[in-house]
Write a structure and sequence with these properties.
The chain has about 325 residues and is mostly helical. It contains twelve helices and five strands. A hairpin with a 2-residue loop joins β3 and β4. α3 runs antiparallel to α4, α10 packs across α11 and α10 runs parallel beside α12. It is elongated. About 5% of the residues have low confidence. This is Phosphatidylglycerophosphatase and protein-tyrosine phosphatase 1.
Length: about 325
């Protein structure tokens, strides 16, 4: 009786038990075909990086242009130009070539430094202000450098101008336009390697006297100053002065025409016009504003004025 009652329950349960392996099998199949979590995470990261890669700018935006192609093209032209301008400036010295040389050199350094500033002083690192200030400062430095070079070139401190080293290209001009009959060099021998030396001047029919004096740290000794003034007096004296103007001149030079040669010329002016050192220096500054007289040069002028002016015969 109990068995007959339990039999339908067993049969119904048996049907459910028969369906269970199918359900379990389908569930097992689904789990087995799912990738491990670590692989899913790696795949998700790769997809994220790939989708965002094109949106990231790996190079900071240039402040001046997308690249330096135009600037480097101009820079190459400037560099090639310098290959011709540099020797020409020494062989045929004149103010125009001096100015061209100054412009090319300043442009060459400016563009190189500007590229470095743009490449390495980036807004992403230094912020928006410092890179702009760096560019402005660079332009100020370049402008002041070029202005200074042009000023010196046009005030006779160029490579071949009066008072500075006379290179071969200016010898004829000095003799024809300035009526130079004699030259006094305050340079040491090594400074005359590329300039006219005594042999070159004598071949051109110009008298030459070298009173070698160390640059910057020394001033001509009194014996050299006396010898130099006496040498000038041989060519600039009352016999060749017409209407107050000398028909001959003596070219006195050092390297830049600012200190050594100015000391000797100051002594000559004191002797000729019976001037004080202050009067002589003031006159030279009117004619040549960039002369540079340090304490040693002033001392040399004072000693010459007190002790040596009277011993020189005009």
């Amino acid at each position: 009786m109990a068995l007959s009652r339990a039999l339908p329950l067993i049969l119904r349960s048996n049907g459910r038990f028969q369906a269970f392996p199918k359900i379990l099998g389908s569930s097992t199949f689904s789990v087995n075909t799912t990738k491990p979590f670590s692989q899913l995470l790696c795949q998700a990261n790769r997809n994220l990086i790939a989708s965002s890669k094109n949106k990231i700018n790996l190079v900071a935006t240039r402040g001046m242009s997308g690249d330096h192609s135009k600037m480097w093209t101009i820079e190459k032209i400037v560099s090639l130009s310098l290959l011709g301008v540099v020797p020409a400036t020494f062989l045929v010295p004149n103010t125009i070539l001096d100015n061209v040389f100054a412009v090319l050199v300043v442009a060459h350094f400016h563009w190189g430094l500007e590229a470095c500033a743009i490449d390495y002083i980036r807004p992403i690192i230094f912020g928006p202000v410092i890179p702009k200030l760096a560019i402005v400062l660079l332009y100020l430095i370049s402008a002041s450098t070029l202005g200074g070079l042009l000023y010196y070139n046009n005030n006779c401190i160029g490579i071949g101008c009066t008072g500075a080293l006379p290179f071969p290209g200016v010898s004829k001009e000095l003799m024809e336009k300035e009526h130079v009959k004699a030259v006094i060099s305050m340079n040491e021998n090594y400074e005359l390697l590329l300039a006219n030396d005594g042999k070159s001047w004598k071949q051109a029919g110009v008298e030459f006297l070298q009173l070698a004096t160390t640059d910057i740290f020394a001033t001509p000794c009194q014996s050299k100053l006396v010898e130099g003034v006496q040498f000038i007096n041989k060519f600039v004296n009352t016999t060749n002065i017409i209407n107050g103007i000398s028909t001959t001149s003596v070219y006195v030079h050092c390297k830049a025409g600012r200190t050594r040669s100015a000391t000797l010329v100051g002594c000559y002016l004191m002797h000729r016009y019976n001037w004080t050192p202050e009067q002589a220096v003031n006159h030279m500054k009117e004619k040549r504003p960039h002369i540079l007289m340090h304490s040693k040069q002033w001392e040399a002028l004072e000693v010459f004025y007190k002790h040596n002016m009277r011993i020189i015969n005009t």
